[in-house]
Amino acid sequence: MGVLAQAGSRRHLWRDWFNGPLYVPDEGRFVLNLLESDGPSGFLGELERLSTLGSPWASAILGYLALMPGPEEKRNTKRAVELCKSHAHAGDTYAQFVYAWACLFAGDGNLAYESMKKAMLSKFPPATMDFTNFVWNGWGTKEPYPKLALRALRHADRVGHHAALQ
Q1: Exposed e or buried b for every residue in 17-42, given b needs 16+ CB within 10 A?
Q2: Number of domains in the chain
Q3: Cα dihedral: 4, 49, 117, 7 (round 10)
């Protein structure tokens, strides 16, 4: 089911080095140990290595991190697209999720909507909630769709997204 890196005893490490929650799938949890033992350089180095070897989840994490605003409040959408595009088109839900945000930030709302919808329909927990934001705000659609957003919110609750009830 995955874990948010911001939860539990690693919260202070994550907060000190990164800014925001990060979804880590079960198969990637071991990299969180590297965050504790080797700091961000060891953590990021292992993600880069795994991404180069073709790991979709490592590429998605790196893509997600590229979308976090840097020191000058800029996002590296180009890098996120490069990391996630092929994995997203191959059907990896985490890559679809990150690719959707990269497309939205790059100004391609239609592609962003379609990618987020695919990830949501595959029941990727973060995408179930973010799809709600897409349709509520009209991102990738002609206008906001509150009724569809409420249905998407119920879907997020059914697949176990903790923020859905809030």
Answers
A1: ebeeebbbbeebeebbebbeeeeeee
A2: 1
A3: 0
The pTM assigned to this predicted structure is 0.83
Could you tell me if residue 131 is inside a domain? yes
In a domain, residue 163? The reply is no
Distance of alpha carbon 4 from alpha carbon 15, whole angstroms: 12
- Does residue 91 fall inside a structural domain? yes
Supply 23's token pair: 């979804």
When mean pLDDT is compared across 6-10, 115-119, 133-137, the lowest value belongs to: 6-10
Give CA separation, 65 vs 20, 61, 72, 102, 147, in Å. 9, 6, 15, 11, 32
For residue 55, the domain's CATH number is 1.25.40
Q: Report pLDDT digits (tens) over 6-56.
A: 444 555 666 666 667 788 899 999 998 888 888 889 999 999 999 999 999
